[in-house]
Amino acid sequence: MASDAPVGVFDSGVGGLSVLREIRQLLPAESLLYVADSGHVPYGEKSPDYIRARSLAISEFLLGQGAKALVLACNTATAAAVAELRGRYPQLPIIGMEPAVKPAAAATRSGVVGVLATTGTLKSAKFAALLDRFAGNVRVITRPCPGLVERIEAGELNGAGTRELLRSWVEPLLAEGCDTLILGCTHYPFIKPLLRELVPASVSLIDTGAAVARRLRQLLAERDLLAVGGEGKLRFWSTGRPEEMAAVLPRLWGEALPVEALLA
Ligand code: DGL
Questions:
Q1: What local confidence, expressed as pLDDT, does residue 264 receive?
Q2: Nearest atom in ligand 1 to 12's CA
Q3: Which of 13, 55, 161, 211 has its C-alpha lying 20 to 30 A from 19's C-alpha?
Q4: Coil, helix or strand at residue 68
Q5: How far apart are CA 150 and CA 10, in angstroms?
Q6: 73-102: per-residue pLDDT in tens?
C-alpha cells in the first residue's frame, strides 16, 4: 500500500464531516474519500444487522477506491460493525469511535455525566462494556435523541424546532446535576453552538473527532503510511440525493464541493 493512497471515511450521513474536518486539519496532506450513507440515514433506529450490512457495503466500495485505512466516523456503525470489519480486514488500519465516557468520567466535578447519542449506540453491548470499564463511581445518564440527526441532515442547526428538542433533553440532565455532556454521535458537534446557548458555561461538552484524527495519524505512522507534502484531494459521495448533501456542504464543511452519487 502506498502512503499517497487515500483514507476512506464514512457515516450514515453528513455527521461524519465533523470528524473529517478534524482529520483534514491534523493531516492536510492526506487524500480523503467520504461516503454519506444518506439513502439509509438515520442508522440510530435501525437494527445492528442492517447497519453491519451497510457498513460492509460501503467499506468494500472505499477499499475498491484504494483506501489505505478506514475511519468509521459514526458511533452507531462502530458499535454494530467495527468488530466484523476488523475480522475481515485484519491488516487494514480501521478506526472506530465511541462516546467519550473515559475523558468525561475524568473531567466531571459533580460526578454526573450525560450522554447524548443514538438509540443504537446506547443499546449496544459495546456501550455497556464502555460504561463497565470507565464509568467507575460516576453516574452516567443516557439520552437518546430521535429526530435530531434528520434535522442536522437538513441543515437545521439553530432553528426553533431544533432548539426546543434539545432543550427538552438537556434540561432534565442539568436538573440531575450533570456538568459534563458527551456528544456521542458525530452529527451533534454541528449543533454545539446551539447547545452552548442552552447549558451554563460551566458544563463541558465533549466529543471525540480530534481524538479519532490523532489515532488515525498514529496508526498510519506506525505503518509508514502517512502522506507527505502538498494538500490531499477530497472526494464526496452520497447514497441518497447528492444535491441535498451538496446544498448543506457550505455550512457543514465551509466550502461548496461536488458530491457524486453512489449506488451501494
Ligand atoms: N452519526 C452517527 C453516529 O455517530 C449516526 C447517526 C444516525 O444515523 O442515527 O452515531
A1: 87
A2: 8
A3: 161
A4: coil
A5: 17
A6: 999 999 999 999 999 999 999 999 999 999
Spatial distance between the Cα atoms of 155 and 142, rounded to a whole number of angstroms: 25
- Count CB atoms within 10 A of the CB of residue 32: 20
**pLDDT 10s digits, 58-70:** 999 999 999 999 9
Q: pTM score > 0.90 for this model?
A: yes
Domain boundaries, the chain: 7-97+209-261, 101-206
Q: Do domains 7-97+209-261 and 101-206 have the same CATH topology?
A: yes
Does the pLDDT at position 1 exceed 90?
no
CA–centroid distance, 147 to ligand 1, in Å, is 11
Which amino acids are annotated catalytic? 74, 185
**SS3 state of residue 37:** coil
Q: Is 101-206 assigned to CATH 1.20.1640.10?
A: no
> What local confidence, expressed as pLDDT, does residue 173 receive?
98
Q: Which residues line ligand 1 (CB under 6 A)?
A: 11-13, 15, 41-44, 74-76, 118, 121, 149, 185-187
CATH code for the domain defined by 7-97+209-261: 3.40.50.1860
pLDDT per position as a tens digit, 11-61: 999 999 999 999 999 999 999 999 999 999 999 999 999 999 999 999 999
**Contact partners, residue 174, CB within 8 Å, separation at least 6:** 199, 200, 203
Report yes or no: 97 and 124 within 8 Å, Cβ to Cβ: no
Q: pLDDT digits over 148-174, tens only?
A: 999 999 999 999 999 999 999 999 999
- CA of 24 from ligand 1 middle (Å) equals 20
